[in-house]
Amino acid sequence: MAKGITVTEHILAKQKERPEATGAFTALLAELIVAAKVIAQKVNKANLTEDLGFVGSEGVDEEHFQRLVEFANTTIINRVSHVGHLWCMASKQNTDLIPIPPRYSKGDYVLVFDPLGGITNIDVHLDVGTVFSILKKQDSGQDMSYMGNILQPGDKQIAAGYFIYGSSTMMVYTTGSGVHGFTLEPRIGEFLLSHEDIRIPEKGKTYCVNEGNYYFWDENVQNLVEYFKTPDIKTGRPYTLRYTGSFVADFHRNLLRGGIHMYPTDSKDPLKPHGKLMLMCEAAPLAFVVEQAGGAASTGLERILDVQPQHLHQRIPVFIGSRDDVRLAEEFLQGQR
Fold first, then answer.
1. Domain of 242: which CATH number?
2. How confident is the model over 12-21, as pLDDT tens digits?
3. Would you give the DSSP letter of residue 142?
C-alpha cells in the first residue's frame, strides 16, 4: 500500500481481504484510535497545564503520574464501551474485569490494555505508550465473570499493538499478517502509514535492561549481560546499553533497529518474584507484534505466546527483540552457555 494512506483506509483494505470480516473489529479499532488521539493531546500538554499539577512543582510525585494514567484509562474505557462489539475489558489499572455498561450492546471481543506505560518518564519528555491486545470471547455460554474467556495464551490474540507518545505519536499494530506503523499528522488529525511491513533485524547491537538490578539477578542472567558487554569483533560485541524505563519506548526502538529488551526475575522485590512486566497487557501483545515482524519473545524458558495465563495480572520475565539475540538469551538462561 502507498505510504500516506490513513490507518482507517489500511484497516478497511485488510478487512476486504477477509470475506468473513463483519466490520465489528474495524469499528473497535477505530474507537481505540480516537482514544489514542485524545491521550496524545493530554500527554503533549502534561508539562504545561495546571490540571495535572506539573506546573510550578518542585518535584512530580506519584499522585500526578497516577492522574494522567487514570485519564488515559478512563478515556479508553469510555471511547470503546459503546461500539457494541466488546464483551468486556481488562486494564492494568483495574483489579477486576471491566464490564460493558448495560445500556450498550455486547459483542464477542475482549480488549486488554495498559493505558499509559513508562509514565514516570513524562516530566523529562521521554516516550510513554499505550499497549493493547484484542482477543475473541471463547465460551458464549458463560457470563461476564467467567475469567476463562480472558485467560487465553498470547497466540490466541487476533490483534495487538501500541501507541507511542513522544516527539511524534505513532500507532504500530498487527492482525497476524505483518506489522505496520502509522504516524499522527497533527495538522489533519490522522494516523498516516509511515512504516509498512516492519521487519526487525535478525540480530541487533543494543541491549535494554535495568542494570542497577545486576546483583539481584541469578548467575545465568549476569553471565548473559557480561557477554553483551564483553568486546569481541567476530560477534559484533560489545553491545550498546540503552534503557529508558519505558518498555514501549525501548521496544519500539529495537523493533526498528534491532536489539533485545530484558526484564528478568530478580530478588529485589518479594512482591514481584516473577518479574515486573504483566503477561496479558504488556508482554503478550508486544510478543505478538515482534513475532509478526520476524523477532522473538521468551521468558527465557519458553515462548511468551505459549504461556497460559493463570490470573489477570500475572507477571513474567521477558526477553524480547531480535530473533538471534533472544535465542542467545535462552541459551544462557537454560545453562547451555
1. 3.40.190.80
2. 877 666 655 5
3. S
